[in-house]
Amino acid sequence: MDKTILQVEDLSTSFHTERGWLKAIDGVSFHVYEGEILGIVGESGCGKSVTSQSVMRLYEEKRTTRYEGKVILSGRNLLELPYRSMQHIRGSEISMIFQDALSSLNPVLKIGDQIMEPLRIHQNLKRAEARERGVEMLRLVGIPAPEKRMDQYPHELSGGMRQRVMIAIALACRPKLLIADEPTTALDVTIQAQIMDLIVSLNRQLNMGVILITHDLAVVAQTCQRVAVMYLGQIVEEAGVPELFDRPLHPYTKGLLSSIPRMDGDSSQPLHVIAGNVPLLHQMPAGCRFAPRCPCATEKCRSEMPPLREVKGKQKVRCWMAFGEEEKHV
Amino acid sequence: MKKYILKRFLTLVPTIFIVSVVVFLLVHLTPGDPAAMMLGDDATMEDIAALHAKLGLDDPWLVQYVRWVGRCLHGDFGTSTAVIGQKVSDMVFSHFRPTLCLAIYSQLITVLIAIPTGVLAAKNRGKIADFIASVLSLLGISLPSFMMGLGLVLLIAVHFRWLPAAGYKDLFTDGLLPFLRYMTLPALSLGFIHSAYMMRMTKASMLEVLGSDYIKMARSKGVKEHAIIGKHAFRNALLTIITVIGQGFISALAGAAVVEKLFTIPGIGTLLVDSIEKRDYQVIQAITLLIAMLNVVINLVIDLIYGLCDPRIRLD
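Above: the input entities. Below: the structure tokens describing the complete assembly.
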């Protein structure tokens, strides 16, 4: 369980824009253990998707994207690999599933062709063998009449089925790591639960690591072992799921948790809202990035960026106030 | 797919009906009496009246229309009023082959220039290849075909003497090589403008497809770059490109007049211009009908190709 399969160290991704180079994520570090599900949560635009796509180096245009830091998978730094070696890793060692299965499946290719493709590229299977494996994969993700589905096109399937197909494609070569980028956001609630159950059961069956990117804390609570909270391109808190939900340390995490509606809460009270708006990338605050919206920010918070530091065993947080409390306890 | 083809064929019926009515009215609403024109200035009122009765010009329009459609269906488009005794169908048919060959050849050149350049420009967006393609396409769009034709004649035929400046050799009676020698310059000048347009459409459509989620998904599966372009992106971009090819083919057929005149090719365009000069209504009518019908047929073919390329269309 404790074998690390992916180690991301100080990863920064910048994009070239009209305003110059903008860092979409800045100094992101985390790791994924074999067979665990790591949640990455945060609101829209906080850099969750940039993080996941940077791990796979999906932004490849050199003049418009710049990566810094390390992404280590099985002892190799992916950011230093030549492009061709990266192609061998994508789909065979790391796979990805996306939010919208309808737009992520090629509309003019049959399901069969799309699922056989990674098998034929990475495992050099012949057509017939690849087809057999494809059918097997479709059966594994719970698609009825898989032989028939192989010859159908994406638009002939329902939303939930399409998401299952995408999972089957991603897992066809049995990768060590699956990145699921908001896999259930586009689905309705009952299908959401089915897809999450499927991801969890495949995670156990195949013993692969999963990075689950979501903005839904309820999903994280039900499925993940550990969770990293992102705000404005940085990880602000990282902890085991029970610790994070029981005792959030970062004011942003606290804000997120208290903005979840509760069945047993007082429904006459308005929901908690984190004050202010997310600043734009080119108007980044000098100190702690959350300081302008933080209810307990001090002068130090506004001028000096706190590091991501371990407090209370394995819980990591990026907040001067939380460090202060820790010191008081000692 | 069968249902789609059948449905598409049924939609032809009203289109063809409307086209035939418009073409029929076009001639019958033009001022002037065809009988008087055929007989000349010396004709007596009795002669004109007799010819009217013979040609059925006194009948109600509906009767005339039905008779005309019936004859057209039998391939009888009447006789020319300018060249005595010449059957319109023979005239149009003999002039049609050069135009069709020219249009097909020019479209072939267009496609061979435009699609690779467009794909290359999209793939290397912002780089030098993209820049060169953009400049060339701007040049192509801004130059009218007669300018292009004259320029080509001056450079390649007059200056270098590589190819003949004008004339026509038939593909079937004279063979492939003479055909290529004589038709390359006209086909180039006819196709160049359109290839500039098609290149832009190819590039735009490829760029749109390359930015889509399924391309990202394909990359995340480890698909190699050439397969991403060729298999995943191009098949989707093809839908737009096919539309442009169809339009180009139609405009090459209908708009060949200038190039045919310039290179003295005995095609439909030449025949049309001559017939307009001679007020040969029967021929004008037949050519208009033919071009309109070709338009309809080409659009049908394009729709059927759509169905082959895009599985989503077949179902509707």
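Note for the figure: Chain B has a mean pLDDT of 86.
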